[in-house]
Amino acid sequence: MKITIKNQNFVLHQSGAAFWEEEKILFISDLHLGKIGHFRKHGMAIPEKAILENFARLNVVLDLFDSETIIFLGDLFHSKINKEWNFFSEWTKIHSQKIILIEGNHDIISKQYYLDLNIEVSQELIIHDFLLTHHPSEREKLFNFCGHIHPGIKLKGMGRQFLSLSCFFRKPNQMIFPAFGEFTGNFYIIPEENDQIYAITKEEVIEIKR
């Protein structure tokens, strides 16, 4: 799905990523690498091959879009370093895009690890009229791209049927990105009058009309 914000064009992808066409920037939020390894360490029966799923999904969106820069909107790595860091380190070496991390609350790994991989780290970033943060923020005259919330929407069907989907949650001056990573969970929102919901299905992103 393509949307326009402040005369700029963005493609919303069903992975939860978004591509800024004019600037050739790929936005990804809340990947939470290392979370699966953390769960496995504490006895949860998650197959080890699930660790590679995040990287497979990353590769899919990189193949789709002609990006020059990847900006992670926080919570790139879930907690302390585990062996998933080695996968990430190798993944960065086979891609030529510039990588920027906007620090999230889970990003507790020393910045030096990222700098060693030529990844820029920042608390926030302003590009033209867009404010990039991890936590939802407001700044006069700027449109905020952020994550952190892991937004989702519950849709009611006939009878007692409900469908729960991740979504891009757009307010008048802000868009909160869905979590890209596996096993991250959702926070189900209740949209207000001027909010727009772009729900994610397996095949596409669809705007939910109310």
UniProtKB/TrEMBL annotation:
Pfam families: Metallophos. InterPro entries: Calcineurin-like_PHP, Metallo-depent_PP-like, PdeM-like, Pesterase_MJ0037-like. SUPFAM superfamilies: Metallo-dependent phosphatases (SSF56300). Residues 24-116 form the Calcineurin-like phosphoesterase domain. PANTHER family: BLR1149 PROTEIN. This is Metallophosphoesterase. It comes from Flavobacterium frigidimaris.
